[in-house]
Amino acid sequence: MPALFIDSCSQLKSILEKSESLSPHNWLISYLECYDTIGWEGCEKWEKQSLILTDEELKKDIYLRDMQFIWGVFSAIPTEYSQKDIEKYALPELEDPNYMANHINPQHPLAFLEISVWDGCYTYVCAHDENLLNPFKEVPYKVIDAEEDNKTMNKELCRIQDILRNMVPDVSEAVANDVQWEC
Question: What is the value of pTM for the model shown?
């Protein structure tokens, strides 16, 4: 289970509080949209679509303002990597179909953990090392094993797909393969 679904993201503060035990890292933040981006010192950075902050910089703003994030991928990347190293790779995306996969890992190749905020409603936390997720299971929100949830959903989608395939047997193989869910 290297991924969790947390049924809340209105306040990232309580989720970030659980990241205290992580090894030294910076945050690559992409696909960012948040409230509270005007009227306070340092707020300009939060109007950007992507940015890189130290762990201290991110937590200072979050703990001070308790901002609400609507969208964003927060990738924890070891401090040994420079901004130039980080920018060699594509930015993580929220519309990535891997969030529906049976195995979910951080999108950025240098990231060891990612926190993805979706539509101001919920949050995914994924990591290469399952042990890194343990503190996040303690947040005061509903927490679900995202991979197990996806396996159940994907199995049901495959079952429905098989029913549809049997109901419409004359669909060409090319069309069926184009719309087939990977089972």
Answer: 0.80
